[in-house]
């Protein structure tokens, strides 16, 4: 077998399929673009669904790619098995209506087993097919002479996710030999699908040939009009086999990271392989996800990253690494993976900073968790920590259950493990219930797939005359229709919805009379513009109409679209070059732009962005469009989006020297045409994804005017003269309010002083000749109440004052020396009252204060305190 590095194997795979006339599709970011069915890109085909269901026709029906993927559904197995990872790479080749089973099997066979390529020993290979897929079985046995004794027929070999394209699959396994079969079980491991490290799956070919229904009988599925091939090869597995690694971790993909960890630990790799593998796997996931725009948070993608980091830190502690260390591993990950992913180097500093900050935050969280655990032990009746408490420590504080057990045992306590497991399972159920929509594809529409007549889009024209070349109703081709349907013209000035820009609307005219309205325009599989119309007349194929778009609407749309380009440039300049588009929407009223960024764009940055764009508009920068070959266009530095389906030739839109992008949309004639820009809002729309909404032209003016009207209304309400500044008036009012508050508190304090004798007189006698008083007040200043407690405590032994606010509570407690001698402590009473109302706090034995969050629990707190002092309510 050849000696190959991981990088050589990656490049060899792409070179092989390029030699078979495949187009190399760039790998997508881990954060899906314009796809809310996925939390992460989790397979090679995940970013290519648009081709499989026929929505988009690729430039070349033969595609190959190397796709970054992330899965955390079996995270607990990472490090314990030879092949489980959270971050991994899939090598894939795909056919969109081109070659099928025989060619796909042939490509896999040649790449893996020929000496020219990988050169594995075919006699060590095993294969699987679906029970009913006789065609695939015959190809393996008859064309490639595979011994039937090495082929497993199984009903499990059927690939389907939700509704849409699906089909049987065939897998290739490689026998790593008896060294990986300690019990000498042999082929039984493969044919009975037993868990093992000997027979390793390295290639899966999916024959996507049916239109499936989730839960349906596969034998009733109809054949697809366009059959596809979807293959996936686990890159890490292949590297492990080629390099002879005992596991995927014992390869040049992981060992540089593992060696770097060894420098930080006093435990060698061989003495704790699980901990090393967990850390090396998780740091790769963190580097790639953060570099692709995700960030840490308590939900969604951010929660996944937080869990990965905390798990890695915990295993770092197992290796006796006590200080922050993960961020120090980022450079070695970048160095190891950077040859194929050069963008990592550009984002290395940002990724290190994000990880370092999160590590520091987790250190504080761990400390808080340990404190909570010790407090729980101190206040627990009996000798068992409740399962829900152990789960809270695990889920909220990242406390491993093993650490909870260890600390509890040191204190002589047990932990309700069954209760912990139940709470953990309930959390998993909640997670399953809140997952994104089913990861299905759309169903193919045969007539549209088979419609190949060409249609030309005419840029920068508001009307044209053209002939009907295709008619469709509900996806079926017809010769004529009236009412609702879709029309394709030989030429059209109507823009079809694409790249976030909405489709045009307008009318169809015949002999100067409007006979139909165009409500929307979308693209067919072949790129033709489908005009969604409502017609008053019967439309026939071959008819000729005058097409008129809503010119006023188009002009507003193109202003907004051009401003999106300016916004992306401004974001890169103000916020950082790491900003990348994660989706957009443009219509005539407003636009929104989604982008990857790890924190809120500040108000100051928003102002700077708004000012910068309006400065460019004021300079009326020229907008130029040119058509270039795709590779030539990229060489000019023009920005490109993975989510766009670029052809061999692309439109490059330049706006002065501030913006250059590949874009098929419509644009203003110059930047000055935009008129003005108003940044309306900046918000989060998911972990690591921010959204800016903006308006231009008349919409921007209306936003500015609305603000002006609001200011006028404020001035009128404040009765300001034209010379008076609003901020000055606000300062005056704040001073007046403060003075009034002070006077009010002084008056209340005087009232309380006058009532001191009354409070003392109403004190209740309790055991040991002590006196007790419970006082409730509303919305008082705490210093006033503290003074009250100090004064009453000289005459009453136990004083509890409750300050009831709109959404919270204050407890101020005082105890005399006699009360303390009798066993009462102000700190304990304050803490217990706060705890039962969802808060915390405490203090000294003679004086303490605390806060509660749930005022509806005040009655419970009162009952608790009265019981403590021996009073029945």
Automatic annotation (TrEMBL):
Pfam family for this entry, one: tRNA_SAD
This protein's domain notes: Consists of three domains; the N-terminal catalytic domain, the editing domain and the C-terminal C-Ala domain. The editing domain removes incorrectly charged amino acids, while the C-Ala domain, along with tRNA(Ala), serves as a bridge to cooperatively bring together the editing and aminoacylation centers thus stimulating deacylation of misacylated tRNAs.
Species per Swiss-Prot/TrEMBL record: Erysipelothrix inopinata
Coiled coil stretches, renumbered: 723-750
Binding site for Zn(2+): 561, 565, 663, 667
Family annotation (SUPFAM superfamilies): Class II aaRS and biotin synthetases (SSF55681), Putative anticodon-binding domain of alanyl-tRNA synthetase (AlaRS) (SSF101353), ThrRS/AlaRS common domain (SSF55186), Translation proteins (SSF50447)
SMART domains for this protein: tRNA_SAD (SM00863)
GO MF entry, a single one: transferase activity
Keyword Transmembrane helix assigned: no
Taxonomy, superkingdom: Bacteria
HAMAP family reported in the protein's UniProt record: Ala_tRNA_synth_B
Main location: cytoplasm
Keywords in alphabetical order: Aminoacyl-tRNA synthetase, ATP-binding, Coiled coil, Cytoplasm, Ligase, Metal-binding, Nucleotide-binding, Protein biosynthesis, RNA-binding, tRNA-binding, Zinc
Cofactor remark from the record: Binds 1 zinc ion per subunit.
Family stated for the protein in its record: Belongs to the class-II aminoacyl-tRNA synthetase family.
Function, in words: Catalyzes the attachment of alanine to tRNA(Ala) in a two-step reaction: alanine is first activated by ATP to form Ala-AMP and then transferred to the acceptor end of tRNA(Ala). Also edits incorrectly charged Ser-tRNA(Ala) and Gly-tRNA(Ala) via its editing domain.
PANTHER family the UniProt entry points to: ALANINE--TRNA LIGASE, CYTOPLASMIC, ALANYL-TRNA SYNTHETASE
Annotated Alanyl-transfer RNA synthetases family profile domain residues: 4-706
Official protein name in the record: Alanine--tRNA ligase
Catalytic activity: tRNA(Ala) + L-alanine + ATP = L-alanyl-tRNA(Ala) + AMP + diphosphate
Enzyme class: ligase
Subcellular location: Cytoplasm
